[in-house]
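Need a sequence for this fold. Nothing fancy.
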């Protein structure tokens, strides 16, 4: 039977014998405290053991306004409202604005932020590795008993990276709510390097006097610089609802190997672009990407940052989850769109709360997904 425990105070018997990767990350977050590592996240940080797997578990009791990595209201209302000013939805914009307002009110009335997330690494994209979901019914049964007033959820599900897990939650009666369109590449040698983008990006960096640093060791000030570059891009240019990682998070995930960092340094030795990459199974994603947005666009630093993780995936023969955004740029480099979902189990909560979640899924499937596919958002 799956069991929930506190990773801060657990003895060795609570942990599986394998899965040191997950244990190291969960213990690190528990010891430091979530808010010391991700400034705009408040959550209870627990661990869920199911057989020989252990998952990070986040528990929220209705907090509002924090990052979408723990709060669906932030994802489906606050972030969606901001995105309307950044993307082209054509003549549907007034309708979309009104719809988001209605959805936001409904989600709040349904207590959508009273929620438990399974396998939540506090990243924009959670990779689920080789988890196929055979234990989904047992996990659902255990969590609905322990958290009877909370919706149970799993973020970052898609038919490309985890088809069996997605099928398992659907078979178990979970509601799959579309979250965004991500951009994925199956074969970077064929789809990315063959397009000459890799060579062009390397030549561009050389012309600027930039060089790639594998960042095997962080210099003094590097963690602060990486956190600042990420914040320039993801918070400054995009949204304060993206997770805001602190220098302590950068240093800790570098030290324990959870993320592999690569950077681009200028002639003076300063990091001007960076990527922090997560690998699980045969998929790589880069939850931390940043560059110095104050430098001239002609330096091509966004291209340089994307080169860092694309080249890493290609060299290792990994598939690439390029996350959302910059659709034209990613399509030009061989990526294709895939709809990502958050699975929510609502069979144990009130009829009203369950109805709102199912209505949200229906509206997004009928309205948002066709727009995302048509306009490549």
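Here you go.
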């Amino acid at each position: 039977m799956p069991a929930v425990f506190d990773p801060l105070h657990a003895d060795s018997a609570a942990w599986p014998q394998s899965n040191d990767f997950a244990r190291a990350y969960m213990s690190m977050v528990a010891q430091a405290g979530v808010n010391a590592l991700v400034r705009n996240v408040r959550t209870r940080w627990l661990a869920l053991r199911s057989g020989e797997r252990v998952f990070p578990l986040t528990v929220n009791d209705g907090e509002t306004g924090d990052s979408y990595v723990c709060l669906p209201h932030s994802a489906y209302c606050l972030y969606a409202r901001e995105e309307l000013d950044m993307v082209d939805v054509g003549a549907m914009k007034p309708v979309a604005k009104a719809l988001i307002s209605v959805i936001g009110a409904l989600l709040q009335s349904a207590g959508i932020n009273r929620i438990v997330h399974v396998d939540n690494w506090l990243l924009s994209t959670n990779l689920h590795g080789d988890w196929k979901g055979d234990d989904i019914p047992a996990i659902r049964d255990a969590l609905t008993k322990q958290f009877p007033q909370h919706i149970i959820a799993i973020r970052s599900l898609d038919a490309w990276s985890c088809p069996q897990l997605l099928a398992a939650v659907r078979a178990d009666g979970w509601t799959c709510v579309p979250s965004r369109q991500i951009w994925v590449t199956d074969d970077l040698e064929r789809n990315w390097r063959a397009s000459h983008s890799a060579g062009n990006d390397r030549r561009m960096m050389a012309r600027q006097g930039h060089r790639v640093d594998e960042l095997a060791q962080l210099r003094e000030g590097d963690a602060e610089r990486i956190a600042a570059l990420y914040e320039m891009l993801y918070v400054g240019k995009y949204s304060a609802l993206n997770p805001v990682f602190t220098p302590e998070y950068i240093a800790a995930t570098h030290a324990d190997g959870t993320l592999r960092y690569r950077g681009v340094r200028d002639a003076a030795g300063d990091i001007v672009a960076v990527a922090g990459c997560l690998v699980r199974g045969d998929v790589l994603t880069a939850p931390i990407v940043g560059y110095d947005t104050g430098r001239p666009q002609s330096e091509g630093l966004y291209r340089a940052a994307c080169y860092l993780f694309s080249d890493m995936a290609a060299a290792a023969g990994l598939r690439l989850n390029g996350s959302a955004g910059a659709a034209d740029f990613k399509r030009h480099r061989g990526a294709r769109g895939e709809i990502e979902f958050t699975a929510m189990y609502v069979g144990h909560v009130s009829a009203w709360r369950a109805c709102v979640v199912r209505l949200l899924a229906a509206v997004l499937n009928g309205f948002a997904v066709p727009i995302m596919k048509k306009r490549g958002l």
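For context: The longest helix spans residues 351-375.
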